[in-house]
Design a protein that fits this description.
By secondary structure, the chain is of the alpha/beta class. It has two domains: about 325 residues, P-loop containing nucleotide triphosphate hydrolases (Rossmann fold), CATH 3.40.50; about 100 residues. Helices cover about 50% and strands about 15% of the residues. The chain has 15 helices and twelve strands. It has an eight-stranded mixed beta sheet with strand order 2-3-4-1-5-8-9-12, sandwiched between helices. Strands 6-7 form a two-stranded antiparallel sheet. A two-stranded antiparallel sheet has the order 10-11. Helix 2 crosses helix 12 and helix 12 packs antiparallel against helix 14. The structure holds guanosine-5'-triphosphate (GTP) and magnesium ion. Magnesium ion binds next to helix 2. Guanosine-5'-triphosphate binds next to helix 2.
């Protein structure tokens, strides 16, 4: 295992049975959920994040959640990508800057934000947007290891798909059972399938896989077109989808298809191959069409619907444990309260005896003292009462602390359940969109 820095190491630390890692750069106890974009060079990983970012505030606001975003290089790249796509010429000749490989891949902080409600942060979400270089056969050993570790660690994987490569051949659109001429070379499904097969062979926790067809404007015009696109995704990634359905993986995976238009209003024009590299050309339709990404929110909605479900599952366990602790503490507090009452009774009796003794005429008191010592028992009863009282108070303090924690956890679960329902209401499931696996278990909607 190559651990290039302390950051890398800390980034790999896992809580038991959960994927949540803690990032050394931000020292707090927030649970972190990770998502990685997986596709070769130029497919549209960064553009997809830009389309998602365009819908970011609206999507969270409508779910009643607050977000806090950290300034990172990836966020800068997203903003720059949006600026470029917004001012794209009508033939789409301005190209988005390719994401450059990092000298030390582990130093990539990604696009990070915290999610919460009512001013309280509940969890941190991190999108990693690696350079397409890392997925090439020529990638360095360190880059390959980085991707392997990220895939192991991430809760969700987004696979952008170049739809032109999937749906076109030299003489026009593919027929129903054909697959695009450039699908293998551009989208490299074989490499992606191998990467995921290697990582998901022994899954111990749930994962979400999103197949996100991009540059799909032309293929989403009618219901028939959109369903045809979905069918082609299923054919183009058949080996991967079959692997997901195998018994070992099936119950741990949610698999979704979400076609996203990262620019909007574009049409495929033609392909040109020079020196073995094929470039696709597009036009805006109409020529002065504005930047209008479509369905960028769908990515966020599905990811959050999944992550919040997972988060709530772990919170639910925490809540149950807190409730068990509370029950024990309540029992303990009842016993201690009885003990305190008895100690109090003993103290009152001892005090009475001392008072009675003190009221005797002094010579009689001396004589009585010889036959019965009332002061030592009084001292004992006093100290016994103090100890019992302190122990009772300790239990009560613990009880209040656990009660407070349980209430806070319950409030988090409630807030997230509401958000899951709101995210789910607008999750598209038709016209090219589909939940292929894991709906009931990992994308469930609270009643
Ligand atoms: N036609 C068309 N082109 C798009 C669309 N979205 C992105 N692109 C173009 O696709 C190219 C690649 O997009 P990127 O987002 O940089 O791709 P990437 O996967 O991040 O690439 P690397 O960072 O190099 O790995 C850019 O030049 C974009 O202009 C789209 O919806 N339609
Ligand atoms: Mg990029």
């Amino acid at each position: 295992m190559i651990l290039s820095s302390d950051f890398a190491f800390k980034n790999l630390v896992k809580c038991q049975n959960l994927s949540f890692s803690r990032n050394s750069a931000i020292m707090d106890d927030l649970q972190e959920l990770n998502i990685i974009m997986v596709a070769p060079r130029g497919i549209g990983k960064t553009s997809l994040l830009a389309a998602m970012h365009e819908e970011f505030n609206k999507t969270f606001e409508s779910a009643g959640l607050t977000t806090w975003t950290t300034d990172t290089q990836t966020l800068d790249a997203i903003e720059e990508c949006k600026r470029l796509l917004r001012h794209m010429d009508y033939r789409l000749q301005n190209l988005v800057d390719p994401t450059s490989p990092k000298l030390n891949p582990w130093e990539d902080q990604g696009f990070v934000f915290e999610v919460g409600s009512g001013g309280k942060k509940f969890m941190r979400v991190r999108f990693t947007d690696p350079s397409g270089e890392y997925f090439k056969p020529t990638a360095t050993a360190e880059q390959k290891e980085y991707i392997r570790q990220q895939l192991n660690q991430c809760d969700a994987v987004v696979i952008p798909i170049d739809v032109t490569a999937l749906m076109e051949k030299k003489i026009g659109r593919v027929k129903s059972t054909e697959i695009g001429l450039w699908h293998e070379s551009k989208n490299d499904p074989a490499r992606i399938t191998k990467l995921l097969k290697d990582t998901y062979a022994n899954l111990t926790r749930p994962r979400l896989v999103i197949l996100a067809p991009l540059k799909c404007e032309t293929y989403m015009k009618t219901d028939k077109d959109a369903n045809d696109l979905l069918d082609h995704v299923k054919i183009g990634y058949r080996e991967l989808l079959d692997f997901f359905k195998e018994d070992e993986q099936y119950h741990k995976l949610a698999v979704v298809v979400t076609p996203i238009q990262t620019i909007g209003h574009i049409a495929f024009s033609h392909a040109e191959t020079i020196d073995g590299y094929t470039r696709f050309y597009y036009n805006k339709v109409p020529l002065d069409a504005p930047y209008a990404p479509k369905d960028g929110d769908q990515l966020l909605r599905y990811i959050l619907r999944f992550l919040l479900n997972i988060f709530n599952e772990s919170r639910q366990l925490e809540l149950e444990r807190a409730k068990e602790d509370l029950q024990k503490l309540e029992k303990e507090s009842g016993v201690k309260s009885d003990q305190l009452n008895s100690a109090k009774q003993r103290l009152i009796l001892a005090e009475q005896k001392v008072n009675e003794r003190n009221q005797l005429w002094t010579p009689f008191r001396w004589i009585a003292d010889i036959f019965e010592d009332v002061y030592t028992p009084h001292y004992g009863a006093k100290s016994d009462f103090a100890k019992t009282e302190s122990s009772f108070k300790d239990t009560e303090t613990q009880k209040f602390a656990v009660q407070g924690k349980a209430d806070a956890t319950e409030a988090q679960i409630q807030a997230f359940n509401t958000a899951i329902s709101k995210f789910a209401v607008d999750c598209k499931q038709e016209r090219g969109f589909a939940i292929l696996q894991g709906r009931a278990r990992w994308l469930s909607v609270p009643r």
